[in-house]
Structure to design on (286 residues):
């Protein structure tokens, strides 16, 4: 029990330190850029350098040498066999469609949507805003996979197993979004389920790499297509459900079922391919 509690607490600390570094750095750069030269998005270039450098450090590069292997193992940014990657991407893509549908359904049921942290065109010129949203998608997807599905979940898996580790890391992921996105039940549920999807991919593939493209695509979709439309969505409680509401609801159910089937296939493929891949990784020193 003591070991479990220690792992749970240590995983939370690691997740929030790693995630906090990237989030606070990017937030400070955006604020400074908006105040000084909003038409010139210099913050994007600086954050790209910080992002690459920090991820390399988390992957064991540079000193101290005594923690390099530990950092590399906890980031677990390792390549996986092509078949495993393919099924992981398919499962993640199907789950993403289901999550988009779920978000819209929840917004129309609760009128709670949007992203309060997204700058607007009144604060920044359109080109600068677009570049910052793209960089924000890179920052959030890479840093959150490193923090929650890497450092936190790797800490939790040996003591809680796959299901427990995914659940706890998803709980941390949900709480991480609360201060900026709000603590309404619909948003908490949504971010917990997002954490389950990405956490399951990381557990089955033993890597944070396969989830990143899906996470990045999800951020782009929400930044550019979903969140800007949330304020205009109908309120089902007052306006009633239209055909679009039921279409999103059906899509959520159908693509959830398809995603579950894809995840089951991913689990079978990963069990066959991973032992050979682990041996190669050990021989290569990675």
């Amino acid at each position: 029990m003591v070991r479990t509690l220690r792992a749970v607490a240590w995983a939370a600390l690691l997740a929030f330190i790693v995630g906090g570094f990237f989030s606070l750095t990017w937030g400070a750069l955006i604020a400074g850029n908006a105040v000084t030269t909003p038409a010139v998005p210099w913050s994007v270039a600086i954050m790209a350098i910080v992002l690459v450098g920090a991820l390399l450090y988390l992957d064991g590069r540079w000193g101290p040498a005594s923690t390099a292997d530990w950092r590399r193992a906890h980031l677990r940014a390792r390549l996986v066999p092509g078949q495993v990657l393919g099924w992981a991407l398919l499962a993640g893509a199907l789950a993403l469609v289901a999550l988009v549908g779920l978000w819209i359904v929840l917004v129309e049921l609760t009128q709670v949507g949007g992203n309060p942290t997204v700058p607007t065109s009144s604060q920044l010129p359109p080109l600068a805003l677009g570049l910052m949203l793209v960089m924000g998608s890179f920052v959030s997807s890479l840093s959150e996979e490193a923090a929650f599905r890497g450092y936190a979940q790797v800490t939790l898996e040996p003591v809680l197993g796959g299901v427990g580790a995914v659940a706890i890391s998803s709980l941390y992921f949900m709480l991480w979004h609360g201060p900026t996105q709000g603590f309404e039940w619909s948003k908490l549920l949504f971010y917990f389920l997002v954490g389950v999807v990405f956490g399951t991919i990381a557990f089955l593939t033993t890597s944070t790499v396969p989830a990143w493209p899906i996470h990045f695509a999800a951020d782009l979709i929400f930044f550019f297509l979903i969140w800007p439309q949330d304020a205009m969505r109908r309120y089902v409680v007052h306006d009633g459900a239209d055909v679009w509401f039921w279409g999103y609801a059906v899509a959520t159910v159908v693509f959830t079922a398809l995603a579950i089937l894809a995840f089951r296939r991913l689990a079978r493929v990963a069990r066959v391919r991973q032992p050979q891949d682990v041996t190669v990784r050990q021989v290569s020193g990675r």
